[in-house]
Design a protein that fits this description.
- By secondary structure, the chain is an all-alpha fold.
- The protein has one domain (7-105).
- The chain contains five helices and no strands.
- It has helices spanning 7-20, 23-40, 44-52, 59-62, 76-105.
- Helix 1 (7-20) runs antiparallel to helix 2.
- The model has no long low-confidence stretch (mean pLDDT 78).
Length: 106
């Protein structure tokens, strides 16, 4: 078990867990860092940069860390990216569903 009380400690813990292939634990640790960046530093730009450079967490993972009243302009690009990714995923699932349906009918 990693005791990560600092950002650098958390990053080191993530690197050790990555070697063991523990994706849920890695995501949890990245969320700790994101929470620190958003709540303690209160720096939206850094949070968005952090999100853009991270493959383990998405905008919906860190939205709860932001204050209730916040302008959406700061999140616009991240939200659009996330929506486009979901749209692509839905289109792939539709294609797979159509293929399954054709196989079932055939």
């Amino acid at each position: 078990m990693c005791l990560a009380s600092t950002v650098s400690g958390t990053r080191n813990c993530i690197l050790r867990r990555r070697k063991r292939r523990e994706p849920q634990a890695i995501k949890k640790l990245w969320l700790k860092i994101a929470k620190y960046v958003v709540k303690d530093k209160k720096d939206v730009r850094s949070a968005m940069d952090f999100l853009r450079d991270n493959e383990h967490i998405k905008i919906e993972d860190i939205l709860p860390f932001f204050p209730d009243f916040f302008t959406i302009n700061d999140f616009k690009d991240a939200i659009l990216t996330s929506l486009n990714e979901y749209n692509d995923s839905i289109e792939r699932l539709k294609g797979w569903f159509d293929l399954c349906w054709l196989t079932l009918e055939g």
